[in-house]
Amino acid sequence: MTNFLQSMASASRMRAEAITRSFSDDDLDMPAFPLCLRGFDLIAEIKNQSPAEGNLVNRGVRRSDRARMYVDGGAAAISVLTEPERFDGDLSHLVEVVNEVSADEIPVMRKDFLVHTKQVLEAKAAGASGVLLIAGILDIEQAKALLGCAFEHDLFVLLESFDEQDLELTAQLLAQNDYQEKATRNKLLVGVNTRDLRSLQVDPHRLKRLGHLLPLETTAVAESGLQTAGDVADAVGWGYRMALVGTALMRAADPAALIAGMLAAGRST
Question: What is the mean pLDDT of residues 7-15?
Answer without folding.
Answer: 94
